[in-house]
Amino acid sequence: MTTLASTETQLLERIDEIGAKIHDVREATAATIFGQERVIDLALITLLSGGHALLIGVPGLAKTSLVETLGAVLGIQNKRIQFTPDLMPSDIVGSEVLEEGNSGRRSFRFVKGPVFTQLLMADEINRASPKTQSALLQAMQEHHVTVAGVRHDVPRPFHVLATQNPLEQEGTYPLPEAQLDRFLLQIDVSYPDEAAERRMLFATTGLEDRPLKTILSADELMMAQRLVRQLPVGDQVVDAILKLVRSARPGTGIDQEFEDMIAWGPGPRASQALMLAVRAKAMIDGRLAPSIDDVIELAEPVLKHRMALTFAARAEGLQMSDLVAKLVKPLG
User: Fold this and answer.
1) Same-domain status, 187 and 281
2) How far is it, in rounded angstroms, from Cα 49 to Cα 216?
3) Which CATH number does the domain housing residue 307 bear?
4) Which of 226, 266, 315, 317 is the most buried (most CB within 10 A)?
């Protein structure tokens, strides 16, 4: 019992220590990205969970600035790729070039692409061809790429924050379900409120330039990710996660009302994502364990991109957010 109490005390101390730094990261990011506190929290949950996120919003909502700011305050290298229809897989992962040495001997040398970074901004990911998207998929899932039969590991930590413009659908390639499932969260970026936009006007159109300081290091971020996985999860929360995810799958004896709304539902990766996300949220809030309220709050960003509505549901004007709200209602 003494050992258990000692372990819990040590865990709490580490949570408090990391939590204080995460709080500073939130404050520093919010001072640059105005009126997007929920987006910042969800992005931090993604990073602390060791996952990737899909940011969906109209242009001009500081999605690119968010990635640059997080890279600066978290002390991790960040790069940006603008996805276009003519982008090739080699433009992402890199390619081999033929070089001639001083001795006249020729050999191939691998030149790394922009995917070899710690935080990658994949801008307008759905504008690239499926072949190019699949090149990024391997790096996201396996943390390495293969060129000419040779494996090249990407740096650690490695996270992708991809953006998608909901307005510009002409000339785009919708992400396949397998790739969507690789994203831990779908983060919807909305317009800031009037007060936040007022502050933004003064902060971004003046002469003052606010330098960003590094608050966490890459090693500390990875330590925080390991700490997230150590947080205990109560049986009630686990039951709530399973009940929610399984209720979103057609053909599993769910309520007939949902059966007629859902074309296909989330797989086991959704349960894993929700389990990690609620732990990360608890740590951000300085709590030792997640609650059912965390499950309810994070249900939409975890499930939204892992489900599809039936034609009948879409014809009736049902939105995915409405469906998720119906699914979480029995949880409280």
Assistant:
1) no
2) 16
3) 1.10.8.80
4) 266
Name the domain count of the chain. 2
pLDDT bucket at 1, cuts 50 / 70 / 90: very low
Report in angstroms the alpha-carbon separations of 231 from 44, 77, 104, 105, 301: 17, 28, 58, 56, 21
> Which burial class, exposed, middle or buried, applies to 15 when counting CB atoms under 10 A from its CB (0-12, 13-18, 19+)?
buried
pLDDT tens digits along 282-306? 988 888 889 899 999 999 999 988 8
Q: How far is CA 78 from CA 43, 170, 312, in A?
A: 14, 29, 43
Interacting residues of 193 by C-beta distance below 8 A, sequence separation 6+: 35
For residue 301 the two structure tokens come to 């960003």
Distance CA 129, CA 134 (A): 9
pLDDT tens profile 139-176 = 888 888 888 777 888 888 999 998 887 755 656 777 87
Identify whether the C-beta of residue 225 lies closer than 8 Å to the C-beta of residue 157.
Answer: yes
pLDDT, one tens digit per residue, over 187-241 is 988 888 888 888 888 777 776 667 778 888 888 889 889 988 988 888 999 999 9
Q: For 5-17, write each residue's pLDDT tens digit.
A: 666 677 777 777 8
C-alpha angle 296/222/120, rounded to 5°? 80
Size (the chain), residues? 332
Domain, as residue range, for 294 = 231-332
- What distance in Å separates the CA atoms of residue 154 and residue 137, rounded to the nearest whole number? 13
Residue 10 DSSP SS3: helix
**Two structure tokens written together for 271:** 């349960």
88's tokens:
């090739």
- 80: amino acid identity, one letter: R
Residues in Cβ contact with 1 at an 8 Å cutoff, skipping those fewer than 6 apart: none
- Supply the pLDDT for residue 288: 82
